[in-house]
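Attaching the record inline, Q. Sequence:
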Amino acid sequence: MKCMTIKKGVECALMTSEGCSYLGAHCHPVVEKCEGCDRTTEFQGKIYCKSYPEPAAKWERGACNFATHIQATVDKTGKVKINPLKASKRAARGRR
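Structure, as predicted:
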């Protein structure tokens, strides 16, 4: 349905016939960490996320999974964690 609160006329997955179904019944502006993301749009002089109604909550536990302006880091130590229980069973069967 189309948003009837802040982003009037824009398709919103949280909008129902009774109104906004998100807690607080409206979207929150983006936080400083969202600057540069391709998923932001401006409405009524404020910048909002197109994908999530409360961007600050996405950044509380690390990087936002919707962020297009950051790259995921990969551990390149080359070591693979092996489950010790599985390793002992493989050894018992004669496999590596």
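The chain has a mean pLDDT of 79. The first helix runs from residue 55 to 59.

More tomorrow.
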